[in-house]
């Protein structure tokens, strides 16, 4: 064995010292004693090897002989260390060995001053390194098995980690830790300065490849490239900077700004494409940065053609989405037959068909009975013949009845007034007054007629004949009084309550609250039906304003009239029909909501397919053409900052600014350091584009239908959980 091998056995890590350090130690008294011990050990080993004969193996095994020699070595090492461990020379050697270990295994050791290094090597918690690390270093040099080598290195890393924990926890080492932190920060800042220079040059190259970066980027007054440099400096202050992400986000903001500008100019305001444009801007920005990094040309035309295709598909899909989801046509929502629902009976074909036949027979029978031509046969067979005759002459009888009803129509208000008095008027005073007033009006008309004819001196016979039309005129005057009185009463009532649909008949009542669960849901139902009533009235007013109606107009007008009647009956069922349980009314509302939603959704698809899809595509083409021209145009003024400024950006006059203010440099606005994460940051919406001149865009009728379906969907969602009886 060599001298250093035995020396490392006595003082672990002795071989890590350089020759000069070893010679210095070996000249000291402790070193001389150390050399004698090493040489004695070498001599003993040589003597053992030389004296080991074959016949000695018969009486003692080599292992026993070497074990005895090792025991002698341990005893001699103990005596040596007890003699020299208190000497300054030995302590210096041990400290130097720890020094070399830390220099090799702890990179931050080199950041300390010489005095601080000395204090760290002489610390109590560092002494264990001198006995634990050197054996592992020797094994690491001798071992060739990768698995075993990795185990040795893991063991070494664990020892260093344990030592580092003691170093960080020791309060006496705080100045050393501060020095390391300060030196690291100084080195990092020096590296940042060097990297900033490189990044500024990269920014200049990027601005040449994508000239729009030289334009201002609202809301900043500086150019986009100046903002990029400011963000470079902010990003480099992070522990793990990601300048590629900063560049991508900046280019994304620039592309997004111009996409939003073109969208605001060429599409209606209702077409909100903020999230879509943000995703597309990020996609285009990635393409730009990839081409820039690969030193290839920017294929903006191709990338924007992809944008055009996806934009057209996105708009169509967005218009067909109701509150962000597909509209599903439901099945029959009324469920079981609502026998006490007037609106259901009104719309039921079977009921209407049977009712029509029975009504014809009843009308025929009533007419014949009224005219005293009815037969009085008691035979059931003859009664069947009567029914047969009624059915034969039903149409003719209906015609005669219609003629009579038409002739009596001017006096119908009188009938309705007295019917209302008899069925609904409860107050005796008002009942008497309402009964008498039409009579007084009729009598007054007759008296006035008599007074006017009295000067003529007519005979009684002539006056009697004149009295017959006078009575009819008096009855018509009474009917007109009733109409005017009801109209004034209705207007006064509406004026008192604040509107047509503010009267008590249209207010929320306990029945509706019980049916829909709470006042808010009942209010939603009320507002829905009021809107439907208003739509019917608007449609009717549009037909009344026309000078002539086509066949389709007549059919549509009749459908609107029937729809309005059905809505009134549904509202009566919901609000006031005591013959129908309140728990059944939600079925009526759900059926109406689904019917309106389906109708509006089909209208949406039809309008979109027939006319407005072409208009949208034309707008998209114009939009992409403008964006392509904008992104591909080189600005006339390209103030590119020099990389030698090291972040000091001269003042720039924004494009389109009315005046250029003199003075010192402006502050470069920077964004929050947390805004450039791995995920795409939320970009602000572009509300007022630069040089914005909105074009005349014909309103999209499909948006009206979509909005209506979304309103219905919101009501359905609110009523779906929970509704009584559904």
Automatic annotation (TrEMBL):
Lineage: Bacteria, Pseudomonadati, Pseudomonadota, Gammaproteobacteria, Legionellales
Biased composition (Low complexity): 630-639
Protein name: Uncharacterized protein
Stretches the record annotates as Disordered: 630-670
Keyword Transmembrane helix carried by entry: yes
Ranges annotated as spanning the membrane: 436-456, 462-484
Top-level taxon: Bacteria
Keyword field: Membrane, Transmembrane, Transmembrane helix
């Amino acid at each position: 064995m060599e001298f250093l091998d035995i020396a490392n056995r006595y003082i672990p890590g002795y071989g890590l010292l350089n020759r000069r350090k070893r010679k210095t130690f070996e000249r000291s008294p402790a070193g001389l004693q150390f050399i004698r011990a090493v040489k004695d050990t070498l001599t003993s080993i040589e003597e053992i090897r030389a004296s080991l004969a074959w016949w000695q193996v018969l009486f003692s095994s080599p292992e026993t002989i070497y074990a005895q020699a090792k025991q002698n070595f341990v005893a001699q090492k103990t005596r040596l260390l007890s003699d020299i461990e208190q000497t300054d020379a030995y302590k210096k050697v041990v400290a130097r060995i720890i020094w070399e270990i830390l220099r090799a295994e702890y990179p931050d050791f080199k950041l300390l001053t010489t005095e601080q290094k000395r204090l760290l090597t002489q610390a109590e918690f560092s002494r264990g390194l001198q006995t634990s690390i050197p054996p592992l270093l020797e094994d690491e040099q001798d071992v060739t098995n990768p698995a075993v080598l990795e185990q040795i290195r893991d063991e070494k890393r664990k020892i260093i980690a344990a030592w580092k924990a003691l170093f960080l926890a020791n309060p006496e080492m705080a100045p050393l830790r501060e020095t390391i932190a300060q030196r690291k920060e100084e080195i990092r800042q020096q590296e940042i300065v060097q990297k900033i220079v490189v990044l500024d040059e990269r920014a200049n190259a990027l601005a040449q490849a994508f000239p729009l970066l030289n334009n201002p980027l609202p809301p900043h007054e500086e150019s986009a490239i100046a903002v990029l440099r400011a963000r470079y400096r902010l990003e480099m202050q992070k522990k793990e900077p990601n300048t590629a992400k900063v560049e991508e986000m900046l280019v994304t903001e620039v592309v997004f700004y111009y996409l939003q500008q073109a969208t605001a100019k060429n599409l209606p305001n209702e077409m909100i494409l903020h999230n879509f444009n943000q995703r597309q801007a990020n996609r285009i920005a990635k393409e730009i940065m990839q081409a820039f990094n690969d030193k290839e040309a920017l294929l903006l035309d191709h990338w924007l053609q992809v944008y055009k295709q996806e934009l057209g598909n996105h708009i169509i899909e967005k218009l067909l989405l109701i509150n962000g989801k597909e509209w599903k046509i439901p099945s029959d929502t009324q469920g079981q037959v609502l026998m006490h629902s007037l609106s259901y009976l009104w719309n039921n074909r079977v009921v209407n068909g049977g009712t029509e036949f029975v009504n014809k027979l009843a009308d025929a029978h009533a007419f014949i009975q009224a005219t005293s031509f009815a037969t009085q046969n008691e035979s059931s067979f003859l009664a069947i013949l009567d029914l047969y005759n009624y059915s034969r002459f039903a149409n003719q009888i209906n015609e005669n009845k219609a003629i009579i009803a038409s002739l009596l129509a001017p006096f119908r208000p009188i009938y309705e007034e007295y019917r209302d008095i008899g069925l609904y008027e409860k107050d005796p005073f008002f009942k008497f007054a309402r009964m008498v007033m039409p009579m007084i009006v009729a009598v007054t008309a007759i008296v006035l007629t008599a007074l006017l004819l009295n000067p003529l001196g007519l005979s009684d016979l002539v006056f009697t004949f004149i009295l017959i039309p006078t009575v009819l005129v008096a009855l018509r005057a009474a009917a007109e009084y009733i109409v005017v009185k009801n109209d004034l009463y209705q207007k006064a009532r509406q004026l008192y309550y604040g509107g047509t649909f503010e009267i008590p008949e249209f207010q929320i009542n306990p029945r509706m609250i019980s049916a829909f669960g709470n006042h808010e849901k009942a209010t939603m139902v009320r507002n829905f039906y009021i809107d439907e009533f208003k739509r019917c009235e608007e449609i009717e007013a549009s037909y009344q304003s026309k000078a002539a109606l086509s066949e389709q107009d007549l059919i549509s007008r009749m459908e609107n009239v029937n729809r309005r009647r059905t809505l009134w009956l549904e509202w009566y069922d919901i609000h006031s029909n005591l013959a129908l349980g309140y728990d059944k009314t939600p079925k009526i509302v759900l059926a109406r909501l689904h019917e309106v939603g389906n109708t509006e959704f089909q209208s949406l698809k039809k309008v979109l397919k027939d006319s407005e899809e072409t208009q949208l595509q034309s707008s998209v083409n114009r939009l992409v053409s403008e964006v392509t021209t904008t992104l591909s145009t080189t600005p006339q003024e390209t103030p590119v900052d020099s990389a030698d400024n090291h972040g000091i950006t001269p003042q720039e006059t924004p494009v389109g600014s009315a005046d250029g203010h003199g003075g010192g440099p402006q502050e470069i606005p920077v964004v929050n350091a947390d805004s450039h994460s791995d995920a795409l940051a939320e970009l602000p919406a572009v509300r007022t584009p630069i040089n914005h001149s909105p074009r005349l865009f014909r309103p999209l009728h499909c948006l009206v239908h979509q909005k209506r379906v979304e309103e219905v969907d919101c009501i359905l969602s609110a009523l779906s959980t929970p509704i009584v009886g559904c």
